[in-house]
Amino acid sequence: MKRLAIIGAGNVGKVLGTALKAKGYRLGAAFCRTEMSRRVAEQVLRCPVPETAAQAAQAGDIVFITTPDRVIREVCEKIAATGGFRPGQYVLHTSGAHSSAVLTAARAEGAYVLSFHPLQTFPGLEVGLQSLPGTFFTVEGDAAALDLAAELVDALGGKMLSIPTALKPLYHAAACAACNYLVTLMDAALEMYAVMGIPAENAMEALSPLVQGTLRNIAVLGPQQALTGPIARGDLSTISCHQEILAQHCPALLPLYTRLGLDTVDLARRKGTLGENEAHAIKQLLGG
Fold it and tell me: pTM for the full model?
């Protein structure tokens, strides 16, 4: 079984290293920048933690660079400059935003490079390990490394998506829209509930079944057929009422409501529940 090296043993590094070790992969080494992180890596991963990233990389046939996104290129270049990579090695990073192009320095040393992004969040080791089964891993990079990617995804109990390298930023933008911006929408809803004097924890308890049900409907039906609400049924009076109350009590949220409303009109038109005249009237009401 191939040996792994983990460069940057934070949550993602520890989760992947632990999960793959359980599937028979050997952990050759891990590298952490701080002394505290080194001690944690030694306890969790139970592998050598050498003094330099290059020494750790030398111990692996597969090198995972799981550092923060902003330093992946810098770390890769430093390892390459100090002899950490070799021909035939596999070098992967786990960033959702960056393509495999940031690993060019490893490729120049004869290694095969991939971006290998788990479409999942890892707030901690145990939660991360529980979240892995069924997780999609989005990969792009050298064709010679795609078989290895499929092998790793299979070992992790996941599913693989392969995308063009040039479109990696678009992939990440989609993930941010689905994940981060959903959080922003929930925060906006909680702000509206706060105006009514409802504490955030009670608001979350009230809204969670609605949100979970909506997500289930989207998963089963797709966005178009899952769409409900006043825009989908052409209810101008309700939309107007929303605008008035937001302007009075939550004016900072009115532009967000308006922008999403305009996009929802187009979605309702595609669903077929909103006629052309109704759509035009709602867009006029929303200022579009």
Answer: 0.83
